[in-house]
Amino acid sequence: MYVVVYGLRNAGLTDTLTGAIRYLADHGLAAAAAGMGFLAAFLSAVMNNLPAMMTDALSIRESGAQGAILEALVYANVIGANLGPKMTPIGSLATLLWLHMLSRRGIGITWSHYCKVGVILTIPTLAATLAGLILWLRVLRVPEAAGWIAGIAAVGLAVLALAVAAGSARHKKQRKIPLSR
């Protein structure tokens, strides 16, 4: 696999990808994360997911991205490389093996049907996952958000503690009345 990845690098694929990644990184964190995720998903769907992820990783390293943009690119690459193979049977060796095993047992799934269902399910899942990544990197990871999250968590824990205490006090006030002797 490493030979294939470095062969693709020597053929110029990583240079092309590096240019695309730099373009995405220049447009901010959201563009970098969304673009890298969809790029990794597409490459993983048309070639195998592991060489696609490794090729993307080389390109990310060569792009010179730093900080939060680099983090967004790396996470989006992993997300795209794991979801992208669901769009086509050739994206994952495991899918090819399952389709072969199913056909031997008389369950035929055509490639066109697999691709149609795969694209319909994968694209929204990928978009939602990348949106969650962007939200996490933009909102939940900044220092200001940490204070807000800690404050909300403290209030939530206080409310929970009060509810437990109130329930415990209410339970103690209720006396069991003997039914009859």
Short description:
The protein has 181 residues and is mainly alpha-helical. The protein has helices spanning 2-10, 13-26, 29-46, 49-63, 67-83, 93-104, 111-140, 143-173. The protein is built from 8 helices and no strands.
Describe the structure.
Helix 2 packs across helix 4 (49-63) and helix 5 (67-83) runs antiparallel to helix 7. The model has no long low-confidence stretch (mean pLDDT 84). The longest helix has 31 residues, at 143-173. The protein is flat. It contains eight helices and no strands. It folds into two domains: 2-141, no CATH class; 143-174. With 181 residues, the protein is mainly alpha-helical. Helices cover 81% and strands 0% of the residues. It has helices spanning 2-10, 13-26, 29-46, 49-63, 67-83, 93-104, 111-140, 143-173.
Per DSSP, the total helix count is: 8
The Cα radius of gyration reads 25 Å
Q: Give the overall form.
A: flat
Mean pLDDT: 84
Number of strands: 0
Domain count: 2
- Low-confidence segments: none
Class by alpha and beta content:
mainly alpha
Binned strand content: under 5%
Distance between the termini: 82 Å
